[in-house]
Every structure is written in C-alpha cells, then in structure tokens.
Amino acid sequence: MKRIINTSNAPAAIGPYSQAVEVSQTLYISGQIPLNPETGKIVEGGIGEQTQQVMKNIGAILEAAGYTFPHVVKSTCLLSDMVNFKAMNDVYGKYYPKNAPARAAFAVKDLPMGVLVEIETIAVK
C-alpha cells in the first residue's frame, strides 16, 4: 500500500505528481527545485543558494514522512550545466558527512522554471 506525503514546509507540486510516495518503508521523493515554500519563488543567488534550498525542501519532506538524511540511499542530481557540479557538491556533501548515498549527477538541457539544480531522492527505513 502506498502513502502519499505532502507538507507545507516544502513547495507544493507544480504538476500532476506528489511531493513523495512511501511504499514498503521506501520513500520516493520527487525532484525538488529551489522554490521557497513560503513565497513560491525561486531563491535568489547562484548554485550554492539553490542547492541549499533544494536540500532544505528534501529535509522537510523526509521529516514529514518520518525519515532523516541518514535514511537516504540514492540521489539523482540534475544540473543545468556541469560547471556547477563542484559548488552543488560542496553544499550537498554537508548533508551526508558519513555514509553518503549512491548518486548520479548529470547536466540536462533545461530544468523547470529555469533553475540551476533539481534533486530527486530515495530513502529506506
């Protein structure tokens, strides 16, 4: 049985999808972009500020579902340009100081709303 996760502490879905879905103690978090949930706007600044907001959004969804960052087993990081990889990685790494999850990171042609980064996450209890 699946459980749909929604929290006002992360941006509402901007399409026909859920913030996250839990099935059999596995949480699938939809790709998060750097929207501030309070304003509904993209955070100002560069890749560092955008990655920080994405990770805050992921953290809010994890918390709403009863998970934490150590439960994360896989992330997929989508970047608007690989030139942003190091700066994204510097922020991302602060959330996983030990036993980091598996991860893929690659550049794509475009991201929603013209953002610089989107990250999707899978967590397991």
Describe this structure in words.
Helix 1 (47-65) packs parallel to helix 2 (85-94). The protein has one domain: 60s Ribosomal Protein L30, Chain: A, CATH 3.30.1330. It has a six-stranded mixed sheet with strand order 1-2-3-6-4-5, covered by helices on one side. It is built from two helices and six strands. It is globular. The protein has helices at residues 47-65, 85-94; strands at 2-5, 20-23, 26-32, 72-79, 102-107, 117-124. The relative contact order is 0.24. With 125 residues, the chain is α+β, with helices and mostly antiparallel strands.
Keywords:
125 residues; alpha+beta; 60s Ribosomal Protein L30, Chain: A; 2 helices; 6 strands
Short description:
With 125 residues, the protein is an alpha+beta fold.
CATH architectural grouping: 2-Layer Sandwich
Q: What is the overall shape?
A: globular
Distance between the termini: 16 Å
- What is the CATH H-level superfamily? RutC-like
Helices and strands, in order, run as EEEHEHEE
- Which stretches are poorly predicted, pLDDT < 50 over at least 5 residues? none
Q: Which class best fits the helix and strand makeup?
A: alpha+beta
Kindly report the average pLDDT value: 97
Task: Specify Rg, calculated over alpha carbons.
Answer: 13 Å
Number of domains: 1
Number of helices: 2
Number of strands: 6
Tell me the fraction of residues in β-strands, as a range. Answer: 25-35%
CATH level 3 topology? 60s Ribosomal Protein L30, Chain: A
Q: Which CATH class?
A: Alpha Beta
Helicity, as a percent range: 10-25%
Q: Which strand order does the major sheet show?
A: 1-2-3-6-4-5
Largest sheet: 6 strands, mixed
